[in-house]
Amino acid sequence: MSVKIPDQQTCLTLIDHYDMLDNIRAHSFVVARVAETIVQGLGTAGTMEILPPDLDLVLAGALLHDIAKTKCLDGGCRHADEGQQICIDHGFPEVGAIVGQHVILNSFMREDYKKGRFGAHEIVYYSDKRVNHTAIVSLEERLDYIIDRYGDGTRYIENRIRENFQDCLDLERYLFSFLPFSPDELADKVTVKPFV
């Protein structure tokens, strides 16, 4: 069975249809460019054993990862879950699975990562964590922002956020062991240009 992937124009049409706010749209575009840079870097890793995920699938997942953010801003829904359902409703369940995991991965596949096997959902998840608004930042900077913005002041929520970021730090270590640049060099490698 083939994977149905929306092209960039379809993604932009969905972004318009779901009234994505300009700041969320700009964030999504940068996340998509970060993800694109990572996939392309994996493609130049120089070994046949590393097969990067499909770039079109990664781009669609990155462009649509916050498709439900505007709708859920009032706290009435979880934007990752709602976004997954939106993608499914439009006939893109594989993209929906990526959107549904961009906040927290459903599973952490260390053995796959050690072998250079990363799925589109890991790439989008990681890329989103590296972009604060439209700035490409370190994971530590993004963690501070997320705790400040989404933490409720309880130790429980802060610990949950930190646990998720520990997985992301581990993923970063695995991912960049196969990339021809370091996490600190990522921002310099990304070409931020609009999607049209």
Instruction: Give Rg in angstroms.
Output: 16 Å
| Total number of strands | 2
Oligomeric state of the chains present here? single chain
Major sheet attributes: 2 strands, antiparallel
The chain-level mean pLDDT equals 94
Distance between the termini: 29 Å
The low-confidence parts are: none
Percent helix, as a range, is 55-70%
Q: Which class best fits the helix and strand makeup?
A: mainly alpha
Number of helices: 11
Q: Which strand-content bin applies to the residues?
A: under 5%
Widest sheet, order of strands: 1-2
Layout of secondary structure:
Blueprint: H1 8-17, H2 22-43, H3 55-64, H4 69-72, H5 79-89, H6 93-100, H7 110-114, H8 120-129, E1 131-132, E2 135-136, H9 139-150, H10 155-176, H11 186-189
Antiparallel strand pairs: 1-2
Helix pairs in contact: 1-3, 2-3, 2-8, 3-6, 3-8, 5-6, 9-10
Based on the model shown, name its key terms.
196 residues, mainly alpha, two-stranded antiparallel sheet, 11 helices
